């Protein structure tokens, strides 16, 4: 399938794996890229040298395009910005900030820059800065979220910018992929669906919680702090929301969630940890390899297009 994004990135399928901190390592990124999508290594809050190591390990397993997601709030963001240049990374996605100060060097090094945005204003700003594309991520996604839904955000961003748009948030199967294209997107970015793939090395407890999730099982914490996060509900979210409703200070709330994602991903503590997942978790229940997932997504999308053609009488 050829789209503006597959041509821009040199990938077979218009599917990008989300840069999930503590989750998206070289095992997952290389598997997704080898399967025809775009695998992403998540820098998260890691050190620059850790990211360098992840890049080199990905190269050992994969000779296809892959990217690095840089959380710009990372204290070592400046160093990581240099590492991706030094290691010849071809694609960088960014979140939690404005990457404009790195843009010139990245572009001069041949890096395709794709910021994640949650608003039309941010999408326009990123286009002016020289971004090659943007990921328009709706509030249905897991982890740190904006306020606008994918259904509302994507078409508005598509209409507002001339660069390609990648849809994200609440996309878990081929029907969601087809819907994203109908909204004007050129590709999709998915995170939750990749959590239960064979190559994803998160704790088995985390995977099982995602598989068992229902449509109403996500909760958003941190709305009062201005940094909302979507996770699967558990003991931690219950306590957090109770504290939040009683006006707890930011310091106390942050103390409760300190190291929470690592607790869930690495240690398997799914009651006290932060089990980040999108609202689509209730639909994600088929395990398998990344290759099987991508092929299934494309098959399901094709079926949707055929059904639509039949309904419209084409």
Comma- or semicolon-separated keywords:
alpha/beta; globular; 314 residues; 15% strand; 44% helix
What does this structure look like?
By secondary structure, this protein is of the alpha/beta class. It has 13 helices and eleven strands. The protein has helices spanning 4-9, 26-34, 48-61, 77-86, 100-108, 120-129, 150-160, 174-182, 204-212, 235-245, 250-257, 260-267, 290-312, and strands at 15-17, 39-42, 66-71, 91-95, 112-117, 134-137, 143-144, 165-168, 187-190, 218-221, 229-232. α2 (26-34) runs parallel beside α3 and α3 (48-61) packs parallel to α4 (77-86). It is globular.
Share of helical residues: 40-55%
The chain-level structural class is alpha/beta
Order of helices and strands: HEHEHEHEHEHEEHEHEHEEHHHH
- Please report which band the strand proportion falls in: under 5%, 5-15%, 15-25%, 25-35%, 35-45% or over 45%: 5-15%
Report the mean per-residue pLDDT as an integer.
93
| β-strand number | 11
| Terminus-to-terminus distance | 20 Å
Largest sheet: 8 strands, parallel
Are there runs of 5+ residues with pLDDT below 50, and where? none
Strand order of the largest sheet: 1-9-8-6-5-4-3-2
Q: Number of helix segments? A: 13
Shape: globular
The radius of gyration is 18 Å
Write a concise synopsis of the structure shown.
With 314 residues, the chain is of the alpha/beta class.
Annotate the secondary structure layout.
Elements lengths: L3 H6 L5 E3 L8 H9 L4 E4 L5 H14 L4 E6 L5 H10 L4 E5 L4 H9 L3 E6 L2 H10 L4 E4 L5 E2 L5 H11 L4 E4 L5 H9 L4 E4 L13 H9 L5 E4 L7 E4 L2 H11 L4 H8 L2 H8 L22 H23 L2
Parallel strand pairs: 1-9, 2-3, 3-4, 4-5, 5-6, 6-8, 8-9
Antiparallel strand pairs: 7-11, 10-11
Helix pairs in contact: 2-3, 3-4, 8-13
């Amino acid at each position: 399938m050829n789209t503006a994004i597959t041509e821009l990135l040199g990938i077979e399928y218009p599917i990008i794996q989300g840069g999930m901190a503590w989750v998206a390592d070289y095992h997952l990124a290389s598997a997704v890229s080898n399967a025809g999508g775009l695998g992403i290594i998540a820098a998260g809050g890691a050190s620059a040298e850790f990211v360098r190591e992840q890049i080199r390990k990905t190269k050992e397993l994969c000779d296809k395009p892959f990217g690095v997601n840089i959380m710009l709030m990372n204290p070592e963001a400046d160093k990581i910005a240099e590492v991706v240049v030094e290691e010849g990374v071809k694609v960088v996605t960014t979140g939690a900030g404005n990457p404009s100060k790195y843009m010139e060097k990245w572009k001069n090094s041949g890096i395709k820059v794709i910021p994640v945005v949650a608003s039309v204003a941010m999408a326009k700003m990123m286009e002016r800065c020289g971004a090659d594309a943007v990921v328009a991520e709706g509030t249905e996604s897991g982890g740190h979220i904006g306020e606008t839904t994918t259904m509302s955000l994507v078409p508005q961003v598509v209409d507002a910018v001339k660069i390609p748009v990648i849809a994200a948030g609440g996309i878990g199967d081929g029907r969601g992929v087809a819907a994203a294209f109908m909204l004007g997107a050129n590709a999709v970015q998915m995170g939750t669906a990749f959590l239960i793939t064979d190559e994803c090395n998160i704790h088995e407890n985390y995977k099982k919680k995602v598989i068992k999730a229902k449509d109403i099982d996500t909760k958003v914490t941190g709305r009062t702090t201005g940094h909302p996060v979507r996770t699967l509900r558990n003991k931690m979210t219950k306590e957090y929301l109770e504290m939040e409703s009683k006006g707890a200070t930011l310091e106390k709330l942050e103390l409760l969630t300190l190291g929470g994602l690592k607790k869930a991903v690495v240690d398997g503590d799914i009651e006290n940890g932060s089990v980040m997942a999108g609202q689509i978790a209730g639909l994600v229940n088929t395990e398998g390899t990344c290759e099987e997932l991508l092929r299934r997504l494309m098959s399901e999308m094709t079926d949707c297009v055929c059904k639509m053609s039949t309904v419209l009488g084409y």
